[in-house]
Amino acid sequence: MAKKGKIFKYKPTNSDSIKVVSNLTKINDKLTVITENSPYFNSFALGIGIKVGSRDDFIGKEGIAHLLEHCVFRRTKKHISSEINELFEKNGAYANAFTTKEYTLFYVRGLKHNFLNIWDLLNEIVFQPQFERSDLQKEKSIIREEIRSYNEDPEEVTFDYAEKLLFGSSSLSHPILGTITSLNKIQIDDLEQFYDKYYSGSEITISVVGNFEHSYILELVSRNQQLIGELKNDKNQREQISIINQGFKKTLSSKFYQTHLIFSILLPKFDKKERLLLSIASLLIGESASSRLYKTLREKYGLVYNVFSSFTTYSDCSTIHIYSSMNPRKQNRSYEILLKELTEIHKNGFTPNELNLAKEQLKASTIISLENLSERMQSLIKSELVYGTYDNLNETISLIENIQLNELNKFVFNYLNPDFWLKIIYVPK
Known about the structure:
Blueprint lengths: L20 E7 L3 E7 L5 E8 L13 H8 L9 H10 L3 E6 L4 E8 L3 H13 L5 H19 L2 H14 L12 H6 L2 H11 L5 E7 L3 H10 L1 H4 L20 E6 L4 E10 L3 H16 L4 H9 L5 E8 L3 E10 L4 H18 L3 H18 L3 H15 L5 H9 L3 H11 L6 E7 L1
Parallel strand pairs: 2-6, 7-11
Antiparallel strand pairs: 1-2, 3-5, 3-6, 4-5, 8-10, 8-11, 9-10
């Protein structure tokens, strides 16, 4: 039985009135449908998210989740890739997909009057693909070039190696693209087996953000039940990662001309408020021109061109990275200052002024994302597939506004001890 959708209205504190009506319906506790009615837009964002990512890759055949994402666009039971591309273009639509460590998302942007055609086509691609050996070989060849391109990017190489060390033997360490060796091992039978296991309808989220009633989308889903197929009872059971302190320093030689430095730390699974605290901490460490590391390493000492922090939250853990590249002659000084700043932050925390600045930036990015239909749709799907929760905008803004300085500094003290950061330095040969 379908559950009644949840509705909320977001009203900003200023005189401008923005009304967002969101609905969530779970069908048999398996298939989830989330809509947001945006009455002032003539375009829409449609997404179909599958709870399968690189951490679910078959052992020895890493990269299969990403490869499958490519292959479904090659051929369906009705159309080949050239026809699929032409149909999207005839309907003025832009279609794409991506694979993460925990989910795969297929999405389209288009105009409202073409919605039904685009809906049918995207559902056909995701739920009625046809796999051919010739198509598989073409996509494997394309992804091999993608892997080679990544291997020429020092930032990608540095981040991938850091995550390999952080995640250890966990399946989260699987590179999303796989390796050329693992890619070569994947055969058509593997692809079909992987599709049957994960694209079963048991953990799928469909989201539409645009000027549509929730009931209309539910009607389309019901009409497509035969297309989607029988909903299975099994869920994607994953081994939970164990948090191990990775606090050591490692120096490696590289083929690149600059020194590339990364500090990384593996953290526990966080609830929504803790994820916001992590977001604020990362922002103040290195995500803006007012951040500690930007002001010291770049503005004060002129040691680096780029320095930034980033964080990722998964279903069972979280990570934060600090990355910078510099002239090899400046690497020791840069390392010392970075470590000194992290030690100061851990010991004394942030200031009230920094917290207020970060809260305003975070609220602004959250509200502005509401005006980007694709971002909002992707946020809704990620929240459901990764966290198993509904991304309520009102709740998010309220949580940000109510964060206190002592909460932030306690979070930093508990989780961002410099002794527990993994420190990797790639030095030119």
